[in-house]
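Module 6 notes. Inverse folding takes a fixed backbone as the condition and produces residue identities as the prediction. Think of it as a translation problem where the source language is geometry and the target language is the twenty amino acids. Below is one complete input and output pair. Work through it position by position during the lab.
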């Protein structure tokens, strides 16, 4: 009798709040009032389904059924749910600011065991947040307000897989202070001429794996940050990115620019960067330190784009430059770049400053082909953002350029030059204000071997 009563109560509970499918309880957003017609605001219905699923505390699924378009303002995801975009389900971002909390479509705060899955699409409707295309600067000009797609804060045991998101008006997937995160097989489809539409931003995060993602993004594709915050979210550490295909008008894989706390034990490997303004980048501008970093087995193409985009075609760029005169700058040290090859319009650049010398850098089997094939002016290094140094510094273009650095090893590296090299292409290796510069089995000559020496190391 007792067992029968328990069974009946359980059955009634499932009918009220969801239905069982296998071992998982399903909470269908349509059962909570969502219309899926693309015009009715469905976020209140979504939130009811999310709250009910989280309260069940069983790892329940919030099902967003296929074949419909759902107009949403902010929704707050919670612990112990699988937020599942079935089939071709599409979330459309609202353009009404009053429908948002904290200027993001999808929020989570302190969620544990949150999963976001499915093959559906999140559409940021980027053009609704821009006024026009500036044909001089070659990018879109945004309106006063534009939301992010995701801000997931202090989440633990987070999994995001298989979804597509894109057409973002601002940052895409922003992870702030999250731990134990697995991101797999995401597709990001942003507009290459929309600024600030980063792909994936782990920010003050630890123990993160990002793999098998295909990202198209006007701004940085995958960028590890430590942004300035009003509370302490800790360092960024133990982050691994692998097997991704990336296309951008900014950096392919990057650390920085915001480096207000330490960023360490970071690995990027087996990635292909189809196009970028910087293939591989560490951009230190604040008080944090960046160390124990590995870039391995990466192919890239790096080129100039229009002037507003940071990066002037550097294949690899490690820079430590103070943001302002008041900045107490951290350090970049212990970085290995191995089995990396690509085509570039500008140098592989390791550039510290008087304020912060870069040290203990190893380049092993780095193969660079220097070729100028874009329409934009060259002969410049990009120091932005800084109010201390010249933002765009006129400088001849070496294959490898090193400044204010110590203990740098080039091992089995190669420099090749196109047959139509511009006059400002120069040495295979140039170094200044540096110590402990070593090169073993460096292959290649200067751009103009009859006029310029292969290696120039200034005291």
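Target side of the pair, the amino acids:
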């Amino acid at each position: 009798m007792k067992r029968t009563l328990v069974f009946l109560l359980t059955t009634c509970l499932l009918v009220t709040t969801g239905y069982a499918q296998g071992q998982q309880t399903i909470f269908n957003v349509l059962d909570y009032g969502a219309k899926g017609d693309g015009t009715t605001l469905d976020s209140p219905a979504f939130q009811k389904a999310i709250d009910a699923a989280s309260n069940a505390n069983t790892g329940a699924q919030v099902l967003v059924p296929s074949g419909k378009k759902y107009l949403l303002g902010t929704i707050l995801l919670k612990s112990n749910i699988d937020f599942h975009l079935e089939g071709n389900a599409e979330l459309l971002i609202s353009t009404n600011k009053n429908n948002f909390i904290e200027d993001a479509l999808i929020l989570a705060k302190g969620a544990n065991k949150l999963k976001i899955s499915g093959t559906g699409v999140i559409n940021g409707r980027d053009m609704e947040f821009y006024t026009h295309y500036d044909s001089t600067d070659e990018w879109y000009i945004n309106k006063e307000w534009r939301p992010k797609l995701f801000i997931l804060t202090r989440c633990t045991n987070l999994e995001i897989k298989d979804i597509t998101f894109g057409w973002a008006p601002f940052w895409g997937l922003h992870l702030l202070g999250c731990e134990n995160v697995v991101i797999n097989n995401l597709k990001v489809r942003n507009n290459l001429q929309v600024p600030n539409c980063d792909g994936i931003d782990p920010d003050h995060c630890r123990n993160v794996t990002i793999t098998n993602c295909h990202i198209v993004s006007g701004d940085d594709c995958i960028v590890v940050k430590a942004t300035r915050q009003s509370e302490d979210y800790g360092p960024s550490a133990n982050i691994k990115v692998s097997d991704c295909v990336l296309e951008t008008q900014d950096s392919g894989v990057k650390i920085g620019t915001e480096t207000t706390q330490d960023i360490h034990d970071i690995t990027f490997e087996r990635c292909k960067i189809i196009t970028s303004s910087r293939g591989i980048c560490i951009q230190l501008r604040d008080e944090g330190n960046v160390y124990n970093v590995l870039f391995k087995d990466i192919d890239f193409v790096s080129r100039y784009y229009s002037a507003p985009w940071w990066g002037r075609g550097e294949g690899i760029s490690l820079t430590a430059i103070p943001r302002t005169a008041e900045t107490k700058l951290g350090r970049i040290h212990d970085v290995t770049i191995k089995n990396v090859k690509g085509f570039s319009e500008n140098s592989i650049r390791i550039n510290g400053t008087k304020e912060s010398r870069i040290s203990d850098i190893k380049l092993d089997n780095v193969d660079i082909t220097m070729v100028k094939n874009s329409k934009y002016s060259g002969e410049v290094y990009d120091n932005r953002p800084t109010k201390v140094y010249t933002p765009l510094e006129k400088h001849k273009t070496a294959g490898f350029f090193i400044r204010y650095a110590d203990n740098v090893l080039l091992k089995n590296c190669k420099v090749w030059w196109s047959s139509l090299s511009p006059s400002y292409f120069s040495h295979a290796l140039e170094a200044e204000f540096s110590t402990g510069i070593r090169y073993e089995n460096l292959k290649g000559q200067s751009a103009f071997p009859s006029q310029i020496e292969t290696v120039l190391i200034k005291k």
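Reference fact for the lab report: The longest helix spans residues 2-17.
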